[in-house]
Every structure is written in C-alpha cells, then in structure tokens.
C-alpha cells in the first residue's frame, strides 16, 4: 500500500530516523580527512621537488641564452675600464646586479661575490655624484653636453642604481640598501624638472627641480606652453626633459616609493602630472613632451612601453589615458626594438610592461622577440642589439659611434648583454621590488 505524502514527511522527520541529507553530511565529515590524505599521497609522486636556484635557472624558459649571458657578464663586467664622460659603466653595473639577483646564482656559482662587488662599486659611484653635484662648476653648461670634465647624463645610472638597491632591500640582502635609497632618491629629486619629468641631469645655473636662472617661455601650443624651460646654450642642446630619461627615473622613484623611508612620495606626485600632460592624442609618447605632432614616429613605441610601466610604477590609475597608451603599444608592438637612444633599453622596458600587463601580453612579447634575442647571441655569450633600423631615428646599440675605440666597443657589448639577459631572466618573474607595486583601477582612489 502506498504511503501518503504527509506520512512520508512524518517518517522522514521522526526522532529514530536520520534525514538523508544529514546522514550524507556525517559520512563525508567522517571520511573526508582520510580521503584528503589518500589524494595527497597519491599525487605526491607527481609533484615536482623544490628546486635549487641553480636547477631553476637550468629548467627555466630561455635557460641556455640566459646562462650564456650570465657567463659573459662574469667574464667581462669587472674588466670594464673607467671612461670619463659616459654613464654607461655604472648603468651597466646596476643592470648586471639585477641579473645576478634575479638568477640567484651565476653560472660560475659566485653570485654573492658578484653582488657584493656591484654593490661596492655603485656605492662609490653615488658618493662621487653627491660630491660633484654640489659644485655647479662640475655640471655641464647645457643639457645633453658631452664632456669628460663634467657630470653628465647621471640620472640614468643613478635611477638604475636605485633599482638595484631597492631590489636588495626587497630581498633583505643588504643592510646598506636602507641607507643608500634615501640618498639616491634625493639625487633624483634634485634633478627633477619643475614639470615633474627628468632629463640627463642638472646643468650650470640650475636650481632645485630644474629651474634655470636664465629662462624663457617655450613658444608651443601644447600642455607645456606656459612652463618656463631652461635656455639651450649653443648648438647640440637637449630639451630639459626627455621621455626616455623620465621613464628610467620615474620607474625607479615609483618602485622605491613602495619601500618605507624612501621619501619619494612628493616626487612621485609631480611625475604623475608630467605623464598625464606628456601623452599625445594617439596615446603614444614622443621624444620630449614639446613634440605634440610626433605621434606618427615609429620610435614612439619603445618610449610608450617605458611610459606605461612608469605610470604603473607611479601608482597612476588605469583610466582612459592609460588604456589608450596600451592600445597604441599593442597596435605598434613590432616597433618596440626600433628605438632612438637605446633599443636595448626599449626591450627592457617593453619586457617589464608586457610582464606587468599579463600572461597574454608577456606570451606575445616572447613569441615576437624571443627567437631574435637568441639569434643575436654570439658563441661567447654576448647578446647584441636586435634592432633592424627600419624606422627614422633608430640608433643601434651594437654599432660604434666612436670609430671603433675598444673601451667603448667593449662597454657596448656588456651593456647590451646585461639588458637582454635581464629580459631573458624576467621570464622567471623574480623581480621582487616590482611585485610591491599593485595595479590601480580607474575607480579606486589613489593614496
């Protein structure tokens, strides 16, 4: 005889009879610990063992060219002579130091010794810059001046040195880093132009934040029209700020601002305003902000990549302007290595940007340029510039501009190898300082 629905309900809820759902939950709770143990035990054999830093480097993508690049740095970095009038040696030391930290261990197994030697050299370099910048007679008479007697183009190596010491601090590898970072920040603040950007460094008769005693209004209709800019003294002068120099300094300042005690916050705020005004209508960034009609230049691609990463490091919101610059970069992706000034620096900034934007962009970067990077490495491990001189204004890093002078030629090779080795090692995601800066959405209020 079939039971009625009320009878079924009564029996299901009677005191002597467990409800089916409750019974099932009790069985799961009783057996779940054993089930979890059995699953973990069964899968333990398939889990990879924790690798040593040396093993991780061997098994990482791009492992062979990265190892050859590290070996080349081991053999050549500390043989570079001091060449007055160029900032390339300290800049190269700083990038190589980042490579040693990212690799955890060099091919020859002496990472700690290499990092220590880089740290000592860069400490002495910062001390020299601090002493020389105090005396205006040590500064060049104009922006972009090439002189072996003057402190020129120092913002680039000072900023990259800040990255090195910031990475040391982020990894807890050096007590000296905490003292060096505020000093480096102070030098970059002193060199920062009143617009919030950076050029090659301070010049004679220039006060704090780039203000010059001799001033004139630049006749330009762009956002910098009312800004008072230093007079260019003589032929060959440079603008007071350059996007590439600003990118290098802003990236360092933005990341150092994430560390306690850096005193970089006020400089970061001024730099944010600079980038908001410097962007062109198509989202790209030109050679210097006054070039408002230079959106067609193909060499803008590498600078725009650096500017996107700089804006990220400065904690700028990812609003419409940020997205416009990203769209421009994606549309002009193939032109990243075709840069003016230093295509290899473009590659470093392009790699950092794509790695930051996400897996899709990073995969595209590797597919677009990975084979070219490897093909440009010679048997000795030197990683050469991969630009193809396809655009107006491209300046190849692997071509000598000084008649084949050995000191400059060797310096170029170590410089290009350091930058491209950094790109290869970035696939391991080991830049701890960069991990401290999180994306800022357009709707989130910035601190």
Defining traits:
15 helices; Glycosyltransferase; 447 residues; two-stranded antiparallel sheet; 52% helix; 4 strands; mainly alpha; two-stranded parallel sheet
How would you write the strand order of the largest sheet? 1-2
What is the terminal separation in angstroms? Answer: 74 Å
> What's the total count of β strands?
4
- CATH C-level category: Mainly Alpha
Question: SS-based structural class?
Answer: mainly alpha
Outline, from the CA principal axes? globular
Helix % is 40-55%
How big a fraction of the residues is strand?
Answer: under 5%
Q: Any guess at the CATH architecture?
A: Alpha/alpha barrel
How confident is the prediction overall: mean pLDDT?
80
Biggest sheet features? 2 strands, antiparallel
Task: Name the poorly predicted regions.
Answer: 1-19, 21-25, 36-51, 53-59, 208-235
Count of discrete domains: 1
**Number of helical elements:** 15
Could you please say which CATH topology applies here? Glycosyltransferase
> What is the gyration radius calculated from CA atoms?
27 Å
């Amino acid at each position: 005889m079939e039971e009625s629905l009320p009878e079924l309900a009564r029996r299901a809820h009677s005191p002597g009879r467990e409800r089916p759902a409750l019974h099932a939950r009790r069985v799961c709770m009783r057996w779940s610990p054993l089930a979890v143990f059995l699953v973990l035990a069964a899968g333990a054999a398939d889990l990879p063992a924790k690798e040593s830093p040396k093993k991780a480097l061997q098994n990482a993508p791009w492992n062979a060219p990265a190892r050859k690049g590290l070996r080349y740095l081991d053999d050549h970095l500390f043989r570079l002579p001091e060449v007055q009038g160029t900032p390339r040696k300290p800049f190269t030391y700083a990038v190589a130091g980042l490579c040693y930290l990212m690799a955890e261990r060099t091919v020859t197994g002496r990472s700690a010794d290499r990092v220590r030697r880089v740290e000592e050299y860069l400490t002495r370099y910062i001390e020299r810059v601090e002493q020389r910048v105090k005396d205006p007679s040590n500064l060049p008479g104009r922006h972009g001046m090439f002189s072996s007697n003057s402190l020129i183009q120092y913002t680039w190596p000072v900023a990259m040195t800040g990255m090195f010491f910031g990475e040391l601090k982020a990894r807890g590898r050096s007590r000296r880093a905490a003292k060096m970072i505020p000093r480096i920040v102070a030098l970059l603040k002193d060199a920062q132009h009143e617009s919030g950007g950076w050029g090659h460094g301070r010049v004679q008769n220039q006060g704090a934040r780039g203000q010059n005693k001799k001033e004139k209004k630049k006749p330009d209709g762009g956002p910098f029209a009312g800004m008072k800019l230093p007079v260019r003294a003589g032929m060959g002068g440079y603008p007071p700020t350059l996007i590439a120099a600003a990118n290098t300094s802003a990236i360092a300042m933005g990341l150092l601002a994430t560390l306690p005690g850096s005193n970089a916050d006020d400089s970061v705020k001024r730099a944010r305003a600079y980038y908001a005004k410097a962007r062109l209508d198509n989202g790209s960034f030109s050679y210097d902000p006054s070039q408002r009609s230079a959106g067609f230049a193909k060499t803008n691609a590498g600078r725009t990549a650096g500017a996107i990463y700089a804006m990220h490091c400065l904690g700028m919101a990812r609003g419409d302007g940020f997205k416009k610059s990203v769209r421009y970069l994606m549309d002009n992706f193939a032109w990243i290595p075709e840069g003016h000034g230093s295509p290899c620096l473009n590659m470093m900034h392009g790699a950092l940007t794509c790695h930051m934007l996400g897996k899709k962009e990073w995969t595209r970067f590797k597919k677009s340029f990975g084979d070219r990077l490897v093909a440009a490495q010679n048997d000795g491990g030197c990683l050469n510039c991969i630009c193809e001189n396809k655009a107006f204004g491209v300046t190849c890093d692997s071509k000598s501009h000084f008649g084949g002078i050995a000191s400059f030629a060797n310096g170029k090779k170590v410089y290009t190898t350091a930058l491209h080795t950094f790109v290869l090692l970035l696939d391991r995601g080991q830049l701890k300082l960069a991990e401290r800066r999180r994306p800022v959405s357009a709707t989130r209020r910035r601190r």
